[in-house]
Design a protein that fits this description.
CATH topology of the domain at 9-182: Lysozyme-like
Strand order of the largest sheet: 1-5-4-7-3-8
Strand content: 5-15%
CATH superfamily of the domain at 9-182: Peptidoglycan recognition protein-like
Length: 288
Amino acid sequence: MSDTPLYIPSLEQRKKFTDYRMGVWGNSFTWFKERSWATIKHVVIHHSVTNPTNDTKSDVDYIADIHRKNGWDGIGYHFVITADGMVWYVGDISTQRANVADKNDIVIGVCMVGDFTKGNPTDEQILSAHDLCKFFIEEMPQLVNVKDWENGVKGHKELQATQCPGTNWKGVADSIYERIKNRIPYTSVPVPQPEIDWEKSYSELKNLTDTRIAELEGQLNTCTSTNTTLGVTLAEKQSVCQTEIADLTQKLKDAQKENPEIKTIIDFTFGEFIDAIVTRIKSKLSIK
């Protein structure tokens, strides 16, 4: 019995992977042939041409029931991707299933739920299909012949005459293939905000704050020291000034005592005043 467990990190991180091999109807482990890894050449994308519902498990079971009615012993795909982007692992990848006529031995069959002749896959289906295909191309070295997107990923119609997986698979600017290959959903995905290392940010802010506080404390100490020095200098200057003022005041008093009092007009008699005027006039006129 073939039993190949899979762990696909990108799908697990998004919680978009379910191993449903034991739960789905039919034989998921031996039907209908086992094959070597080197036999596998392509991951083939299909659409179910069924309408998705809100019960994704039921959508998978409905496809399995269609295949049961075909008279098969198990579901024909290896994976089913429902509208919510969940990847249901339904047929062991080391077994040959039934999804591409005459080429089932060389393909891994991936079916997306929906009718892509009438619409497009959901954003989540695009993302999950990309993550699944990328895993097989880049992260599963056992698949030695699945090496790149161009040859490794095919639409059903590229290997068989059919409309599957829809009219927009390839050949148009906005093809399903290009969106899956480049992981471009139809709705823009918001750019995630960078995670903040709060512990690191707090540590950096604390160090910056501590440094600034130390600088301010240093400036405060300098100002306090300068203020003290200026206070002492001011007190000394004030004492010198007071001493000089006292000396000058005393000198003024002494000068007043030592110099005779100078007469003013009111100190002269009228006659002395007239004589002084006459004497001055004579002097100006040079009269003897």
